Amino acid sequence: MAKVTVRSGNVSVEAESQKELFETLASYQEVFAVAECGGCKKTNLRFTVRRQADTKGKEHTYFELRCQDCYAKLPYGQHDNGQTLFPKKWTRWDKANNQEVEL
Ligand SMILES: [Zn+2]
């Protein structure tokens, strides 16, 4: 079967069957088609990856979308397959109360 490319918004995927295209597009859109900040609604967003060791020295990798205007962030969870991500909820650091709050 021929490879087909489908583009939707800022996401473009290639696959060989309609179901594979659909699933791939859905998966990528969930992660990459976030167009505006969950806080200020602006579009000045940046993907960031942080590596940080826990108290036992094990390194963890954190995937986040960060707003460059209001510093809100959208953390991504990682599926058990170790390959794919899913968005969690927008949060922002609340300086006054020294804690992270959901937006
Ligand atoms: Zn923002």
Report on this model:
The protein is mainly beta and 103 residues long. The protein folds into 2 domains: 1-33; 35-103, no CATH class. The chain is built from 1 helix and 8 strands; from the N terminus they run ββαββββββ. The chain has one helix at 18-32, and strands at residues 4-8, 11-15, 45-53, 59-67, 73-78, 85-87, 91-94, 99-102. The strands form 3 sheets. Strands 3-4-5-6 form a 4-stranded antiparallel sheet. Strands 1-2 form a two-stranded antiparallel sheet. Strand 1 (4-8) and strand 2 (11-15) form a beta hairpin. Bound molecules: zinc ion. Zinc ion is lined by residues 37, 39-40, 42, 67, 69-70, 72.
- List low-confidence stretches: none
Q: What is the distance, rounded to the nearest whole angstrom, between the alpha carbons of the first and last residues?
A: 45 Å
Structural class: mainly beta
Radius of gyration: 17 Å
If you average the pLDDT, what whole number results? Answer: 93
Give the number of domains. Answer: 2
Largest sheet: 4 strands, antiparallel
Q: How much β-strand is present in the residues?
A: 35-45%
Lateral arrangement of strands in the main beta sheet: 3-4-5-6
Q: Bound compounds, please? A: zinc ion
Supply the number of helical segments: 1
Silhouette: flat
Order of helices and strands: EEHEEEEEE
User: Would you report the number of β strands?
Assistant: 8
Amount of helix: 10-25%
